[in-house]
Structures are given as structure tokens and as C-alpha cells.
Amino acid sequence: MLDGHTKKTILYKKELKNRALEFQKELKSQGTDIAFDNMSFRDYLVILNVNVKGISIGKLFLYYKPTKKTYSLKRQISNPKTDAVIELIWNKLNSSDTYSAESGIYEAFVDGSYIAGVTGYGAVIYLGNEIKAEISGVILDTQFRQFGGELQAVIEMLKWCHDNNVKKIRINYDYEGIEKFATGKWKARNTLSSEYANFFRKVQIIIEWRHIKSHTGNVKNNRADFLARKACHYNNKQTITT
Predict the structure, then answer these.
(1) Beta strand pairing status for 106-115 and 168-173?
(2) Which site from 5, 76, 177, 182 is most exposed, i.e. has the minimal number of CB atoms within 10 Å?
(3) Which helix (H) or strand (E) holds 21?
(4) Residue 34's closest CA among 84, 95, 82?
(5) What's the whole-model pTM score?
């Protein structure tokens, strides 16, 4: 038990503080401020109060995961415009900001899931911040679990791109095999990866690849994850909420 002269050490306070200060600096340049003090810290977490022109409009919950050395962010913001700015800055800090609509380059976020014996896939296609398509479903072959869903999400997404005359797209992924099996950096050693690699030999769309860390608070990536999980639960006659 702690006595009156002993202070509990907050786990990873230094890492959280440095990230919060970096975040604060970027947000200030956009007219938004976040405030925090010593009482804001918990183990693995710092709570940030968001202010615009001195008016509080919500809170941010910044988490640190030491096993992966990653940060994640949960938002409770009442102002949609400020919330969008926060999302933009957070993605920039995590090197996952997206192309503008004016660039003409589409963005795809893909994910797979394995729940209760069901493998699901999910993909979201954006042009700028506009969702152009959401794709999800399940696959019969479950031996590779969620990885089968990851690869199928890419295949279904690229079929949509072909049908809709998309010329260039950046694929955002968290499972390395999505890129490495497609480009030949990893040798296909089973039916699943072989079929995936063969599919890419016929793809004529210009593809840009980007690895992003999962569960860091990227809303677009979270949407793909949600769709993959939803497909699994729907197949099991269950429900899932965002």
C-alpha cells in the first residue's frame, strides 16, 4: 500500500508525454489546443482535453502499447470540423495521411478477421475522404484463418477497381504478406498464397503499397477491420457494433 510519502510510478508516462507534446504542437498550428497535466496520466494512458478558442469540445484518450511500441487514439469530440482536423493530424503523425481527391489516386484499406471458425474480409475504397465502395464477405477455406481474409480483401477490392476503371490506387495494409506475396518478395508455398500471386500477374492497375500499423486509431483502417468482423458475426447470426 502506498503511504503519504510514496508516489506511484505511472507506467510509460515519459513516452505518453512526448507523444502528447508532439501532437499538441501540430494541433496548435491548426487552431486547436490540447491540455493535460500530471493528473491526466494513467498507466499506458494520458487523457487530453481539447479546446478551441478557450472552449472545451471534448477529450482524447492517447494509449501506448509497449509490446509493439505503438500509440492509439480514441476521440470524444463534439465538433465534427475539429474532429476531422484531429484525425488528419493524427494520421500525419503516424505516416498514414491519405491522398487528396484532386490527386486522382484512390486509397484502399483492407483487413481480414477470423471469429468462431469463420474467416471474413473487409475493404474500403476512398477518393480523398469520400467512400467510394465498401466490400465484405466470408470465404469457405478457413485453414489460414484471418490471413485468408486479408488476401481476399485485396482481390475483391481490385476486382471493383477493374470494373470501375480505377487506374491507380494505394493499398494500405497491416499484414506484410499482402504486398510481399504480390510482388514476389515472399515465395508462395501454399495454394492460398499461390492463387493470390497468380492473380497479381493479371492486374494492370498501378499499385502503390503502404504498411500501416493496426489499432493505432486510424479511422479508415478501423472501418475495414469492422467490415471483416461484421462479415464473420453476420455469418454466425450475431451482431457487432462500431
Answers:
(1) parallel
(2) 5
(3) helix 13-28
(4) 82
(5) 0.79
Give the pLDDT confidence of 161-185 residue by residue, as tens digits: 999 999 999 999 989 999 999 999 9
Q: How far apart are CA 209 and CA 193, in angstroms?
A: 18
Q: How far is CA 217 from CA 31, 98, 140, 175, 207, in A?
A: 22, 14, 30, 17, 24
Q: In this structure, what CATH number is given to the domain that contains residue 132?
A: 3.30.420.10
Amino acid at 230: K
> By three-state DSSP, how is residue 199 classified?
helix
Q: What one-letter code names the amino acid at 226?
A: F
Q: How many domains does the chain have?
A: 2
Q: Do 107 and 85 share a domain, yes or no?
A: no
Which triple of cell numbers denotes residue 52? 478551441
Q: Is residue 3 domain-resident?
A: no
Q: What is the pLDDT of residues 123-137, one digit of tens each?
A: 999 999 899 999 999
Point out the domain boundary residue: 42, 58, 93. Answer: 93
**Rounded distance, CA 104 to CA 76, Å?**
32
Contacts of 89 (CB under 8 A, 6+ apart): 23, 26, 27, 30
